[in-house]
Amino acid sequence: MTAFDEAFENTVAHEGGYSNHSAGRGGATNYGITEAVAQENGYTGAMADLPLETAKDIYQRRYWNPLRLDEIAKISTSVAIELFDTAVNMGNGTAAKFLQRTLNVFNRQQADYPDTRIDGAIGPKTVSALQTFMMKRKQPGEAVLLKSLNSLQGARYIELAENREQNEAFVFGWMANRV
């Protein structure tokens, strides 16, 4: 099983099947894919009928590939899976910024590697910083990095619920399943 396949299965397990919750901003969704995203990617059928393979293709093209998660997975499969799940739920830019912010505060005042620009795009400098971080901090560092990414994610969910009361319908599940 590839890292993408593992990430996809994990995310679909959290997202579930067809839903059209009245408090959700995305309207009709299936496997976590909103109708707007499905249509942007060429799907024209009913959301309840969205094939799983179509959802998988959308996830790979829209989230996995732009975040360079194949490269990240070569360094840490766990980090790649976490970033993918965060991106699906919060957007690519947010997932990338969480990684960049965390790497910057863990670089020991740039003694280990230079700060990365917090631009919401994973490029060669972010990948290099992660690689150096993992070489220096090893498995204990990976565990702390994952906790840090989840901490930022959890704080963001609280903010979303504070700023939009309707999100209170989802915040408990977000925290239970994603953080």
From TrEMBL:
Domain TtsA-like Glycoside hydrolase family: 9-91
SUPFAM superfamilies linked to this entry: Lysozyme-like
Superkingdom as given in the UniProt entry: Bacteria
One Pfam family from the record: PG_binding_3
InterPro entries: Lysozyme-like_dom_sf (IPR023346), Peptidoglycan-bd_3 (IPR018537), TtsA-like_GH18_dom (IPR008565)
The protein's name: Secretion activator protein
Endpoints of the signal sequence: none
Domain Peptidoglycan binding: 95-179
